[in-house]
Amino acid sequence: MSQLIGACVIAQSGGPTAVINASACGVIETALKEASITAVYGADHGITGILNDLLYDMGKEDPAEIHLLMNTPSSELGSCRYKMADPEKDDRDYKRILEIFKKYNIRYFFYNGGNDSMDTCSKVSRYMESVGYECRVMGVPKTIDNDLFGTDHCPGYGSAAKYIATSVAEVSRDNRVYPTGSVCVMEIMGRHAGWLAASAALASVCGEGPDLLYLPERVFDKEQFLKDVKAVYEKKNSCLIAVSEGIQYADGSFVSEAKTSATDGFGHAQLGGLAAILSEMVKQELGCKVRGIELSLLQRAGAHLASQTDIDEAYQAGSEAVRHACAGITGKMVGFEREYIDGKYSCKYVLLPLDIVANTEKKVPAEWITEAGNGVTKEFIDYALPLIAGENSRPVENGLPRFANLKKVKAEA
Amino acid sequence: MSQLIGACVIAQSGGPTAVINASACGVIETALKEASITAVYGADHGITGILNDLLYDMGKEDPAEIHLLMNTPSSELGSCRYKMADPEKDDRDYKRILEIFKKYNIRYFFYNGGNDSMDTCSKVSRYMESVGYECRVMGVPKTIDNDLFGTDHCPGYGSAAKYIATSVAEVSRDNRVYPTGSVCVMEIMGRHAGWLAASAALASVCGEGPDLLYLPERVFDKEQFLKDVKAVYEKKNSCLIAVSEGIQYADGSFVSEAKTSATDGFGHAQLGGLAAILSEMVKQELGCKVRGIELSLLQRAGAHLASQTDIDEAYQAGSEAVRHACAGITGKMVGFEREYIDGKYSCKYVLLPLDIVANTEKKVPAEWITEAGNGVTKEFIDYALPLIAGENSRPVENGLPRFANLKKVKAEA
What we know:
2 copies of one chain form a homodimer.
Chain A: E1 6-12, H1 20-33, E2 37-43, H2 47-51, E3 55-57, H3 63-67, H4 92-104, E4 106-113, H5 115-130, E5 136-141, H6 157-174, E6 182-188, H7 195-198, E7 212-214, H8 222-236, E8 238-244, H9 273-286, E9 290-294, H10 298-301, H11 308-326, E10 332-341, E11 344-353, H12 354-358, H13 378-384, E12 396-397, E13 400-401
Helix pairs in contact in A: 1-11
């Protein structure tokens, strides 16, 4: 493997997580130490920062601020949702990227994102190869959705899962506080895969947790749902429901987009999302107090509750990407493999082909969902529990989080 | 002051907080050590547990479990919203309470709650005195709303404020992550007083925080609101709005109960609350991406982020109530006075007459709200910042909270 001398660029893409910046930190800190890497740039708002020639020089940042990325939520370099064309069909963006890569002598490209980002990585890699520009392209995964194919789990998932399970445990106590009875519906992110909603069930490990749990992997049946809720409520005088935003009726339509509710027969779109819709359904059926809670951005931005396991693995994913690229690897994503050493969970870092990761979505296995379709099995708990382990020691000032504040000095070629 | 030998009962009431159980812990642990207290009972679901003769014997609990109340959210003994009649008008409940007090020889009554609970305390105290039954009645305050009169602040407020300010800081970063622009409306509890919503402004201390803030102390003007949002959005390409659920139009109607929106001219009640209503308003006006987040129960149940200052003060409030009662005091609530010793915040415990506390609501002072009515001044920050200080060291097992699990052994007379 030849040594390749040149600059590197890292870009972040897609919905942020509590630890995507820990991955960036892993890339930046490792790259700054690599002899073959001459400069470390961060692209503003993902691939668009490259297209717009807006790169920041990470060598000009205070190293202490860079390290604060370990506990800083959102994507510090900015994100984007820009979909690139196939280079075979329309190569304008790729020509522009090549131009910028040449301008800064960029020989390493690290893209920190989910499915779409791995797709972008894969296309850029193919294009650079086709035009004979030597550049090593590596994917650094992130997604709270945990739906990337080929990897045991994804950085970002463990922290969101910990936030969800902890919040469910706390709300579970609150929801039973009055003798008058109460139902609570907690809406959790996950449009196509139920990994996040399933993590609500982790609260059962501390004796709390949802009574009922609905994932998009199973068809949602309104009648059965109301029967389930009624049965729990009649027994316990309370019911806590965790539900994925992506649940669908048998015809494939999203429950969250249902146009008609019992209070409104005119077909007006409801404000307030799925939690409000299901709450209204339950209220109509049981006539009791019902509250809907949507975890919304809180679940992916909750860095204060990030799992230390997740932070460490996210950092390591970034770091491994740099080390492998410098050793000659290209066109791969860093993936995770689970090992149990003396019965103790441990994470092994592996390399996966970008194109496999890009085009397949991993769902919660059917056999991990209970027969009744309103809960998960012990196999899921055993899978997810190690990922939420470890309390982080985030820096706090005046009782408030101390996030990274990068200077973002524009790079010069 | 005579020594009074007998049992004590503690009851919890109203909406729970992250630290109301820390106050209960203060009462129970201190009472268990007091020589003049013969037994320590916890009433099931507030005053209704006394009316229903359902008391739990705290002496039969594992002391380690009792101490876990320090980090357990919700009201572990259960809460109620039972409104007692004036004893002068209808004394049936009071006769029943007297009967139960006599049955268990209860000579000390500690009521842990907000405005209504202090009212109940006051009435029970008056009644017991009028019938010549010697019983010392003490109020132990709690409310995330921070609206109790006479006390500098209330236990529960600091923890909710810390949760809100931290969540606002995190969401603030996430809300600016895309170059495409975004507005986010965060709905915060507080029907009549804006203390909680104002705490969102604490995030400004770490460089984040809401761009705009609306409290119920000021009349809500829709046109001005939209003008404010537009101005911020045009300048920053994003806007974070924190708003109290209790904001009202000039005619006194709650904005959250507005029947008509731009999408629905038929006057149907909106699902999803104030955040959804304001989001829709902004979307109509600016046409940009808008997200509404309601902090709902999360903000009062978030024990994982409870302020250690708040936990300590809540405990102390309970403990002081017991010690003063044993020393002969009755008919008082433990209140807080702020001191600065060498410039450092410190809390002094004082005794306040129950009836003053019960019937007055404390609002955010007009001079702490900016002239434009969309923010708070430095005076508010200086007031609230010490209350969110201190990271708690809650017990965690398997990455999940370890809450108290009381056995709740029914008391025997």
